[in-house]
Every structure is written in C-alpha cells, then in structure tokens.
C-alpha cells in the first residue's frame, strides 16, 4: 500500500535511514543534536517531563528536536510537495483526512476507502518521525508537520519550494483540547497537569511547538506574502462552511472539483467520509494505535474527543478567558488575523 507509511523508530536518528544517507552525515546530525541538547533552556513538559526551547520554539527533546535536525540536514523537498502544517490540536486529523480524500478522490472508491481502515495520521508521513522512505515516494507527496514556518529550512519555504496548507483554531479550544489529550498520554509516574498549570504554561508559550500565537502568525504572514504557496484555514470556518473550504482546498492543491463532480455530490461524500461522526465511529479509530516512535504510541481514539467549536470556554474561568483573549488581541494586533471571543 503506497499511501501508507509506517512510522519509523526515531529514537536514534541513525536507525532511520536504511542506508539511504551517508553514515557520516547521519553521525554529524547525531553529534549536532547531542552537542546542543544540554545547553537549551528547559520548561515543564505536558506529556514528557520537560520541553526544550530551540530558536524560540518549545519542542520535545527526544522526538521533535531530533525530527527537526533530520529535516534541516537531510530532507529533500520537491516543488510538488504539499505539506500540511498545524499546531497540535487545531484540526490536524480532520485536515489530513480531507486532504488525502480530496487528492486521491479518483483513486479510491468511498465504499472501500483507505480512510475507513487507517487513521488519517497513518495516511501521510509526519516529518518529525524522520520517515525513511520519502525519497522513493512518488510526486506529489503529501506530508505533514507541526513545525513552525520559521524553523523550516529555506529549501522548504523559499522559491521553488513546497506548498503548505495550515489550519489554526481558537486558542481556548486548542489549550483545553491539548490539556485533556496530553494528560491521557502523560506517563503514570508523572502527576497529571492541572488545568491551571496548563493554562499558565500555554500563556507563557511553553507548550509543544509553542508559543501558539507565533506559530499561527508565522504561517499567516507567509500566506499573505505568498498566497499561492500557503493556504491558511481556520477550524471554525471549516465547521461553518465545510463545502466552501473543501472546494478551496481542492483548488489550492491543484485538484479543483469539476462542475460534474459538484453536481454528483463528490464534495459532500468527502465531507461525510471525513466527518467527526464517521471517523470517530470506525473500528480502526476506536481500537487501534498510532506508533510515532518506540516511546510514543497513541490510541487512535484520543484524536477524536468532541470536535466542537467553543468547548474550551466551558472548562475555563471568566478570568482565564479574559486573559487568553487579551494575549491573543495583543499578539495578533495589526496582523489582520482575528479569532472569536
Ligand atoms: P493532533 O494534533 O493530536 O493530531 P488534532 O487533530 O489537531 O490533534 O486536534 C484534535 C481535535 O480535533 C479534537 O478536538 P476536541 O478535543 O476539541 O474535541 C478532536 O475532537 C477534533 N477532531 C478530530 N477529528 C475531527 C473531525 N473529523 N472533525 C472535526 N473535529 C475533529
């Protein structure tokens, strides 16, 4: 099945290359990682014991930072690559499903579609996991990452580089979704993180790939500067008008929906296939797992909680809502980007 890439073991960078990259170069990446790691600022982790700050961004030391070194040193982008970029818990699972279904809509029937038996995350390689077979993958490649735009190598972001689809979400919903998700993955030996603590960390920017607002602004600015390269979406818009957004997605990806497809209801079929109701009730998403590394194994069911807009507010106090709204207004001031209250 060439659409499915198993996630390799990224715990040691050198394990991931299957001889495709010169061992000296791999050694150099490993050495660089070991050299910088001890000197990076540390902050409290949500899922792991701590996060490290690299070039202003908070990353898990054993996974995301290694993945970043791999991307920076060894990833060979193609101008035909499409990279789905997201901050965690902003709609990644949904966007992956919609994009995969849109691009491959003439290849698979809706009755026996891969998304019926594979979690959306299993349909697209995740750059952080140092996928080892990317070079042999046919174009156009659909890729995914949580890395902020600013950390990606120039080869991905400048001139003849990849195209990106980015999705963002109201920070209150992101925070609460992330807090609940991370506590489920947090090892038993570490005490759960309280909402108050998660809130403080999030507001200070200390959360995977955070600060959240910088992440959003990086892709927002890139979408304004090069709209043909970066499609910027909001989870809330997707909820409100899914068919409009799916058509925009098709156009951006170079797979516009024809009038005939529209009249035959292909857009609706894709929306139905990728809906929260459908995906969350599939056996694969109720009982299987996603293996990101030897240490990170996630029950697929954790990717599906409520899928609602505004749910975060029911967990937060009025004071918390006020503070996070104030931070958001301040950070986004003058950018032209707004979130609801
Ligand atoms: P990830 O970063 O771990 O991949 P991501 O998919 O970005 O997570 O976000 C998960 C959120 O999207 C969950 O939101 P909640 O906690 O507020 O409920 C999840 O329920 C929601 N979600 C997952 N799949 C869908 C879908 N098909 N439609 C709408 N929302 C979805």
From TrEMBL:
Residues 80-335 form the Sulfotransferase domain. It holds the Pfam family Sulfotransfer_1. The keyword Magnesium does not apply. It is an enzyme of class 2 (transferase). Its EC number is 2.8.2.-. Keywords: Transferase. The keyword Cell membrane does not apply. GO terms for molecular function: sulfotransferase activity. InterPro entries: P-loop_NTPase, Sulfotransferase_dom. It comes from the Eukaryota. This is Sulfotransferase. Belongs to the sulfotransferase 1 family.
């Amino acid at each position: 099945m060439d659409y499915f890439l198993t996630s390799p073991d990224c715990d040691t960078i050198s394990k991931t290359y299957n001889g495709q990259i010169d061992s000296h170069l791999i050694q150099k990446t490993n050495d660089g990682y070991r050299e910088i790691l001890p000197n990076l600022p540390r902050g409290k982790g949500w899922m792991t014991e701590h996060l490290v700050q690299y070039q202003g961004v908070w990353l898990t030391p054993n996974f995301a930072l290694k993945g970043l070194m791999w991307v920076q040193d060894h990833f060979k982008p193609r101008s035909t690559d499409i990279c789905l970029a997201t901050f965690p818990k902003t709609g990644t699972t949904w966007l992956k499903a919609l994009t995969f279904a849109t691009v491959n809509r003439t290849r698979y029937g809706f009755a026996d579609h891969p998304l019926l038996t594979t979690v959306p995350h299993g349909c697209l390689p995740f750059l952080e996991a140092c996928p080892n077979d990317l070079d042999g993958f046919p174009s156009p490649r659909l890729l995914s990452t949580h890395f902020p735009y600013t950390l990606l190598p120039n080869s991905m972001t400048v001139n003849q580089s990849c195209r990106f689809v980015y999705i963002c979400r109201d920070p209150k919903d992101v925070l609460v979704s992330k807090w609940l998700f991370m506590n489920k993955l947090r090892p038993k030996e570490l005490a759960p993180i309280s909402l108050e603590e998660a809130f403080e960390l999030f507001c200070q920017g200390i959360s995977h790939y955070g600060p959240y607002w910088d992440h959003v602004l990086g892709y927002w600015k890139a979408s304004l500067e090069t709209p043909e390269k970066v499609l910027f979406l909001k989870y809330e818009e997707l909820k409100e008008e899914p068919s409009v957004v799916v058509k925009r997605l098709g156009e951006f990806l170079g797979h516009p929906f024809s009038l005939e497809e529209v009249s035959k209801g292909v857009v609706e079929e894709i929306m139905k296939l990728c809906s929260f109701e459908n995906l969350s009730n599939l056996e694969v998403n109720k009982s299987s797992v996603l293996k990101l590394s030897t240490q990170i194994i996630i029950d697929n069911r954790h990717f599906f909680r409520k899928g609602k807009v505004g749910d975060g507010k029911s967990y937060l106090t009025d004071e918390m809502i006020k503070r996070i709204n104030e931070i958001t207004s301040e950070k986004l001031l003058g950018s032209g980007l707004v979130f609801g209250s």
